[in-house]
Amino acid sequence: MDGRIKEAVDLFQEVLVYGTERVIKSVDHPLWKEYSPEQIQMLKLIGSEKQITSARLAVLQAVHKSAISSRIKKLLQKDVIQVVQTTDKREKLLELTDKGQAIIEELDQVLADYLEKLLSENIADEEIEQFLTIFRKLKTIIKMDGV
Amino acid sequence: MDGRIKEAVDLFQEVLVYGTERVIKSVDHPLWKEYSPEQIQMLKLIGSEKQITSARLAVLQAVHKSAISSRIKKLLQKDVIQVVQTTDKREKLLELTDKGQAIIEELDQVLADYLEKLLSENIADEEIEQFLTIFRKLKTIIKMDGV
DNA sequence: ATTACTAGTTGAGGGGGTATACTATTTTGG
DNA sequence: CCAAAATAGTATACCCCCTCAACTAGTAAT
Description:
Chains A, B: Keywords: DNA-binding, Transcription, Transcription regulation. Chains A, B: InterPro entries: HTH_MarR-typ, WH-like_DNA-bd_sf, WH_DNA-bd_sf. Chains A, B: GO terms for molecular function: DNA binding; DNA-binding transcription factor activity. Chains A, B: This is MarR family transcriptional regulator. The structure is a homodimer of 147-residue chains. Chain A contains seven helices and three strands, in the order αααβααββαα. The radius of gyration of chain A is 18 Å and the shape is globular. In chain A, α3 crosses α6. Chain A has a single domain, classed as Orthogonal Bundle (Arc Repressor Mutant, subunit A), CATH 1.10.10. Chain A has 147 residues and is mainly alpha-helical. In chain A, strands 1-3-2 form a three-stranded antiparallel sheet. Chains A and B meet through α1, α6 and α7 of A and α1, α6 and α7 of B. Chain B binds a DNA duplex (30 and 30 nucleotides) through α3 and α5.
């Protein structure tokens, strides 16, 4: 544990724990106000799996099933997802509606534009590669691969 | 906007937006359950400024003053901060109690131990320097310097 | 069939946030 | 000098997030 680890710890706290939220806040777009980050993540998960159960969403988002339940209710009211019944009548498969599909595409574009501006204004071309290397590494460390 | 920006955007979302929360969750220590990240940040801010007003905390944490007000109430109940009256009777200066001071020291140690383990197990010595470079950069980009 | 398990919902309680309205105090300025 | 304006912080209503425990309904297993 040298001084560099200490600095890394401090940076981790400042940048990851407290900084991320600010970046999210400063993305100025109506959809970012209408949908919470958790709702957006859920939409993206449903989109990537096409059809998914509540139980699997709880695993993927790493929260209690009741948190998922209320989130689903809100997204159903917004008409961005819909339910498909299976033979097992306990179970409900969720999928995106056309509106939901359109919304995640727009959200992706908005974030991409924002980050592109942020990165291109502040990071030199040579640094982008380093940025990617570190973030790929972080992704594996955080063990988000399965998500 | 080449493919690298696209990858950066995806990584940003996965690692920063959704990944950080998991790391925080996986720090297994009673204090991390007893105090929310926002409460911890507030304690650290009070600690670093010695004495601070509610209004300044609202600026530093970038939230509405009423959010600060309720947070202060909770921290007062936990006896980790105390109020000092100034000549301006509208204003209340906040400072850490001994208990509060002890708690941020313990929290720092806990997070340091956790991250040290995480980083040393997953990042080679040569990569640490890269990690630091990128994170210093991110810190300035996120404009957290004043905090 | 009867019991045991599983999927998902509900409600209480506590964390986060905003905006508005309000109290109390200080400043300002005619 | 005193009334009006500005300021610090609180309270309330309403929203999101979360957990845990109790519950319904449907399926599986003995």
